[in-house]
Design brief:
By secondary structure, the chain is α+β, with helices and mostly antiparallel strands. Helix content is about 30%, strand content about 25%. Strands 1, 2, 3, 4, 5 and 8 form a 6-stranded antiparallel beta sheet that branches. β6 and β7 form a beta hairpin. The termini are far apart. It comes from Paenibacillus arenilitoris.
Length: about 180
């Protein structure tokens, strides 16, 4: 991977992790997807199943619903991150306890072949290979040609086999189905 990203309005593929454990978790995930896709410079492509997972780090909280998205975007990595943070705020995200309860959590995991380590953003996400709640949904949507594909697939299969972090498939959803409105 390198630190270059498409320029001059070209679109790049990126991967986003979503999580929620407060309120109507599924509705919040759906609303986040709709808001991401509504941005003129971001298009949601593939979505993972929804997985219910035990909390990690701060464990005195309800279980999470987690998923991942493959998106294409003409935003640069920092611009995409800032848009995701704005959507978190719009959906009531408050940061009080590290790894604590949240209405919505949106993490930029991967962006094209970019490697970067800045105060605001590190790519690939520095802890994604340690977290089953990220790896299993990411495995659902990661492009077959992605350089991390084999590692993500192996780690995801091991996590499911070992029951790591209490991760179970909770539900699949049909993205863009006329019978399942996402914006509600």
């Amino acid at each position: 991977m390198d630190d270059q990203f498409p320029r001059d309005g070209a679109w790049a593929e990126a991967y986003v992790a979503l999580g929620s454990n407060m309120g109507d978790r599924e509705r919040l995930l759906r609303k986040a997807i709709a808001l991401i896709d509504a941005h003129p410079a971001i298009e949601v492509g593939r979505i993972s199943g929804i997985y219910e997972t035990d909390p990690v780090g701060y464990t005195e909280q309800p279980p999470f619903l987690n998923m991942a998205l493959a998106v294409t975007t003409s935003l640069e990595p920092i611009g995409l991150l800032r848009q995701l943070l704005a959507i978190e705020q719009q959906l009531g995200r408050v940061r009080e306890i590290r790894w604590g309860p949240r209405t919505i959590d949106l993490d930029l995991l991967l962006y094209h072949n970019v490697r970067m380590d800045q105060e605001e953003l590190t790519l690939p996400h520095p802890r994604m290979m340690e977290r089953s709640f990220v790896l299993v949904p990411l495995n659902d949507v990661l492009d077959a040609a992605h350089p991390l594909r084999e590692r993500v697939e192996a780690a995801s299969e091991a996590a499911l086999r070992n029951g790591k972090e209490g991760i179970t498939l909770w539900k699949t959803i049909n993205w863009r189905s006329a019978s399942e409105p996402f914006g509600s």
